[in-house]
Amino acid sequence: MAKSKRQLPSPKYFFSLVEWNGPAFNRRKLHMKRALTVKDIAEVARKSVPKVVFDYVDGAAFEEISIARSKETFSRVEFNPFVLRDSSKIDTSTEIFGKKVDLPIIFAPTGYTRFMHHTGEPAVAEVAEAKNMVYCLSTMGTTSPKELGDAVPGVRRWFQLYLMKNREDSLGVIKQAKDSGFEALILTVDTAVSGIRLKDVRNGLTIPPKIRFGTILAIARKPRWWMNLLTTAPLEFAAFRGWTKSLSELASVIFDSSVTFEDVKWLRSVWDGPIIVKGVQRVEDARMLVEIGIQAIVLSNHGGRQLDRGTVPLEILEEIVGAVGSKVDVYIDGGVLTGQDVYAAIGLGAKGVLIGRAYLYGVMADGGRGVDKVIEILRSELVNTMALTGTRNVSEIRAAGVRIRP
Ligand SMILES: Cc1cc2nc3c(=O)[nH]c(=O)nc-3n(C[C@H](O)[C@H](O)[C@H](O)COP(=O)(O)O)c2cc1C
After folding, report:
1. For residue 259, how many other CB atoms are within 10 A of its CB?
2. Which residue numbers delimit the FMN hydroxy acid dehydrogenase domain (predicted)?
């Protein structure tokens, strides 16, 4: 039997193995440094902000079945690897409306970002600019289109719109986007009314947060978040600054359940740039939108935050790409948390994905730095998967395809 040759322990060898790190005083920083996945960052986020904030981001509508199904469907995707292809050079870039982006990932529109971290929308847009990605500003943003354009003039930006029946109101918001250098409108159509998010109701969520007796304890638990909230500009829906309406009145105007395809036609006639329609869940709706002359659709159930038990975007992707993919770009979103999820979507024919919660976990954990880390994790997971499947660019992923296991 083979035996190792023994020797006396060498102090020099021992000390060469020691990692000379001092004790960590900032535990959040340490946890961020150690985070390997977006899920790890979500855990840092959970500890960094009040429960009401984390639940608002992480939660979904009603029984939260849609988002669970989206994640479960991603986990059933199986790759189809090639071997012995030269995978030494991997290119994750793609083109969106004729211009190169470095990753097939777009920052989805998400409201109230300054609620999650005081640096808000501009911090995310700065990362988008640095990484050559597209950033979508939500209608419900806490930064106005002009403020975002002024703060991060170099970022490629799309403005997310909810169509309102009162066309003057819609025009006012569209004009702000046009004047502030937004390249495209991303029209969200899955919000005839707002979804029932039970966690938010149970947590008594209000924007801005109300200070009640119980809040004193919350302040004691997350003093940094509260200090940042109280020492920066008050939270507001910045695109509607100057509207003399209460929050509930504002919400009923913005989420207008009477809008139809006719309103999309009208939008097409007043906006000469690209229009992306987000929230499509059926093939006939995709076809009707394409006839109106929009440029892209996002198969989305709003991350499960509106209708619970809606269609799982990944499951209808191939059918919809087959029906309209030669005429418009097709994206999906909901539950994308890894580079492998991004690969899966492209393998089933998507042009790319939108991410919401993934980057918001980064925002809550550490503002722009957290978002930067999320993108680097997604990038390295995608690159790793591409190398291991022998697909060296986005077109090769699409050609290789993937399977959804039954
Ligand atoms: C906290 C939060 C706020 C959101 N706000 C908006 C919004 O204002 N407008 C919109 O069109 N979609 C909004 N969304 C939906 C996202 O654009 C996107 O569809 C969804 O986040 C994708 O799912 P994911 O979070 O699992 O990536 C929001 C999502 C989250 C998580």
Report:
1. 20
2. 30-406
**Strands 403-404 and 77-78, how do they pair?**
antiparallel
Q: Within 10 A of 201 (CB to CB), how many other CB atoms are there?
A: 9
Mutate to test the pocket of ligand 1, among 302, 364, 374, 378 (most ligand atoms within 8 A of CB): 302
Domain assignment present for residue 4? The answer is no
Q: Are 128 and 107 in contact (CB under 8 A)?
A: yes
In the chain, the number of structural domains is 1
For residue 77, give its domain range: 35-404
Q: What is the pLDDT averaged over residues 213-219? A: 74
CATH of the domain at 210: 3.20.20.70
Residue 207: pLDDT band (50, 70, 90) is low
Please state, in angstroms and rounded to a whole number, the distance separating the CA atoms of residues 363 and 360: 5
30 CA from centroid of ligand 1 (Å): 29
CB of 172 closer than 6 angstroms to any ligand 1 atom: no
Q: Please choose from 305, 336, 337 the residue to mutate so as to test ligand 1's pocket, defined by most ligand atoms within 8 A of CB.
A: 305
Q: Would you say residue 264 lies in a domain?
A: yes
Atom of ligand 1 nearest to the CA of 139: 8
Any ligand 1 atom below 6 A from CB of 140: yes
CA dist 126 and 362 (Å) reads 14
Q: Which residues pair with 77 in a beta bridge?
A: 404
Question: Could you confirm whether 302 is annotated as catalytic?
Answer: yes
Q: Is the CB of 313 under 6 A from ligand 1?
A: no
Give me 323's structure tokens.
Answer: 């029906």
Residue 211 forms part of a structural domain: yes
Residue 200's CB is within 10 A of a number of other CB atoms, namely: 18
pLDDT-based confidence at residue 246 (cuts at 50, 70, 90): low
pLDDT in tens, 338-359: 999 999 999 999 999 999 999 9
pLDDT band at residue 278 using 50, 70 and 90 as cut-offs: very high
Q: Which long-range contacts (CB under 8 A, 24 or more apart) does 99-103 make?
A: 99/156, 100/132, 101/132, 101/133, 101/134, 101/156, 102/131, 102/132, 102/133, 103/131, 103/133, 103/342, 103/352, 103/375, 103/378, 103/379, 103/382
Nearest CA to ligand 1 atom 11: 188
